[in-house]
Amino acid sequence: MQMKNILVLGGAGYIGSHCCKYLADQGYAPIVFDNLSQGHKDFVKWGPFIKGSLHETDKLIKVMKEYEPVAVMHLAAFLSVGDSVTNPSGYYNNNVVGTISLLDAMIKCDIKNIIFSSSCAIYGQPETIPIQEFHEKSPINPYGRTKLIIEHVLEDYETAYGLKSVCLRYFNAAGADYQSKIGEDHSPETHLIPLILDAALGRINCIEIFGDDYNTPDGTCIRDYLHIMDIAQAHFKSFEYLLAHGKSLRLNLGNEKGYSVKELIQVVKDITGNTFKVNISARRPGDPAKLIGSTQLAKTTLNWQPQYNAIDEIIRSAWEWHRKRFSV
Ligand code: UFG
């Protein structure tokens, strides 16, 4: 029997490559379309690769006609909250204008199912914790606004063209499938966990804590970290749901538990046995103090269950991969 194709935009990136691995394990063929601006060619291991940009609508149409994917997973986005504050033009162009080009190609090719990589950044400063899906959406940085705009665009495309979508609002993706030699590798790296691991490896001199005067127990920001393969599992279950029910969904993905920056530094010290310098610096613009998601809806609707909910297990998987990739 011929394998069914799923087109994965951003399939050479951190989250996209783990989704491809999961799809292949389930018997699907991931077709990766990526411009390699942030992704890695060596992360493409489970299907064909097409180098291209979201803005190339005609190329996207050609690829869709050739491979006839049953669905699209869209993870091709600029992803750093801090960067988006200094470079809103790049973020609106890539994340909004680029996505509209993709959606138009899908409509032309009559592909009506998309799983969209959204973010908890659409909520902004939370009024209640854990954050539920109906919480007010008031993003406090351009990155979050680009994701919210696309959620609205998807609603309008459903009304007008019948496009069905699952928007997965991730909290903080972490960890790696290190056996497959894929993991978190951004350039430049801005994310907390890989930076702490860099400090543990001696690749950087110290880890900066961006603010210790937040209204949290130890003064540092709290986030909800979720293992990357649990995110991949949720993408697959969202795809199955769309095919079975033909209904759009908006779902949080997290672990319903929060860890502070200082707590994560301690977990890394305990796991690696290495010590390193820690410096307190100014707050980073656009950072909410505390983000923890309620994920009951994803669990009940998709029958999704995170497999790796212990933080030390998540960090250990990241460390295994990180030291293999970056040790000299
Ligand atoms: N942090 C530091 N020092 C660093 C890097 C980060 O103290 O060197 C802090 C940040 O200020 C923040 C926390 O660590 O409080 C986590 O920061 P990350 O940059 O790792 O992650 P963010 O929470 O800012 O952003 C991530 C993803 C986004 C997503 C968001 C949702 O990168 O795509 O989670 O919370 F939208």
Describe what you observe in this structure.
The protein has two domains: 5-173 and 227-253, 3-Layer(aba) Sandwich (Rossmann fold), CATH 3.40.50.720; 192-223 and 256-326, UDP-galactose 4-epimerase, domain 1 (Alpha-Beta Complex), CATH 3.90.25. Helix content is 41%, strand content 17%. Helix 6 (192-201) runs parallel beside helix 8, helix 6 packs across helix 10 (311-326) and helix 8 (261-272) packs across helix 10 (311-326). The termini are far apart. The chain has helices at 14-25, 57-67, 81-86, 88-108, 142-161, 192-201, 228-245, 261-272, 296-302, 311-326, and strands spanning 5-9, 29-34, 49-51, 71-74, 113-119, 164-170, 172-174, 206-210, 222-223, 225-227, 249-253, 259-260, 277-281. With 328 residues, it is of the alpha/beta class. The model has no long low-confidence stretch (mean pLDDT 96). The protein is globular, with a radius of gyration of 19 Å. The chain binds uridine-5'-diphosphate-4-deoxy-4-fluoro-alpha-D-galactose (UFG).
Determine and state the CATH class of the largest domain: Alpha Beta
Which structural class should the secondary elements be placed in?
alpha/beta
- Which CATH architecture of the largest domain would you pick? 3-Layer(aba) Sandwich
Q: In total, how many domains does the architecture comprise?
A: 2
- Anisotropy-based shape: globular
Write the CATH homologous superfamily of the largest domain.
NAD(P)-binding Rossmann-like Domain
Which strands sit side by side, in order, in the main sheet? 3-2-1-4-5-6-11
Give the beta-strand count.
13
Using the CA coordinates, give the radius of gyration.
Answer: 19 Å
CATH topology of the largest domain: Rossmann fold
In DSSP terms, counting alpha (H) and pi (I) runs of 4 or more, how many helices?
10
Would you identify the regions where 5 or more consecutive residues have pLDDT less than 50?
none
Termini gap = 45 Å
For the sheet with most strands, the description reads: 7 strands, parallel
- Estimate the strand proportion: 15-25%
